């Protein structure tokens, strides 16, 4: 079913049922309706009945290919993405909210559920090969790189290597996700090959 917006969908479907799917043209995103979880009658439901992104929807896919962002030596730096696609917006209340329409660096979760998060940062993209450590990480609800992190990769400076990781995680509504990078070359350096993706899997059921 095709709708111009979530408001148009609500007006047309007063009583949706589990399994219904819709597509919203204003955010170019697919949705599925879940009724409330019940251990005996509807164990496949959601903790809260409602429309959720269709399973497997890529909510954010970003790349930093802009070498103007400096990673200070021995400091975890939040990554902003100058090339990206996002099914949310700077004001989205359903899928994911980004903090900037041009170079987003924070991603606010709007639907509690299970998400797959992946990143990679190629060593060959660094402007400096000095030092001994290159690392990347993702955390929630903190501007400090070592706090609340749930993905973390630390490697040497071999240009054939990449700091990369993928995991499946439960994220609560309003969790804020950030990606960080770290290097210890002794000087500020840049990396022009950093990627992040956030994929929706399914709503929380309990």
Offer a quick outline of the entry.
With 206 residues, this protein is mainly β. The protein contains 1 helix and 15 strands, in the order βαββββββββββββββ.
What does this structure look like?
- By secondary structure, the protein is mainly beta.
- It has one helix at residues 6-12, and strands at residues 2-3, 21-24, 29-34, 50-53, 58-64, 77-78, 83-86, 96-98, 107-109, 113-122, 134-140, 149-155, 162-171, 176-183, 194-203.
- The protein has two domains: 2-53, no CATH class; 58-203, Jelly Rolls, CATH 2.60.120.
- The strands form three sheets. Strands 6, 8, 9, 11, 12 and 14 form a six-stranded antiparallel β-sheet that branches. Strands 7-5-15-10-13 form a five-stranded antiparallel β-sheet, with no helix packed on it.
- A hairpin with a 4-residue loop joins strand 2 (21-24) and strand 3.
- It starts with a strand and ends with a strand.
- 30% of the residues are buried.
């Amino acid at each position: 079913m095709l709708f111009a917006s979530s408001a148009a969908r609500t007006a047309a479907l007063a009583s949706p049922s589990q399994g219904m799917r819709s597509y919203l043209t204003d955010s170019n995103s697919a949705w599925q309706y879940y009724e409330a979880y019940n251990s005996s009658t509807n164990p496949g439901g959601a903790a809260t009945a409602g429309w959720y992104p269709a399973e497997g929807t890529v909510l954010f896919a970003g790349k930093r290919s802009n070498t103007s962002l400096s990673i200070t030596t021995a400091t975890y730096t939040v990554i902003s993405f100058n090339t990206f696609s996002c099914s949310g917006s700077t004001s989205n209340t359903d899928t994911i909210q980004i903090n900037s329409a041009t170079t987003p660096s924070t991603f606010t979760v709007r639907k509690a559920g299970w998400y797959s998060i992946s990143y990679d940062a190629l060593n060959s993209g660094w402007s400096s090969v000095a030092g001994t450590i290159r690392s990347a990480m993702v955390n929630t609800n903190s501007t400090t790189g070592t706090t609340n992190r749930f993905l973390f990769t630390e490697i040497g400076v071999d240009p054939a290597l990449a700091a990369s990781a993928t995991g499946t995680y439960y994220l609560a509504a309003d969790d804020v996700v950030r990606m960080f990078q770290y290097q210890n070359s002794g000087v500020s350096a840049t990396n022009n090959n950093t990627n992040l993706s956030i994929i929706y899997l399914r709503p929380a059921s309990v």
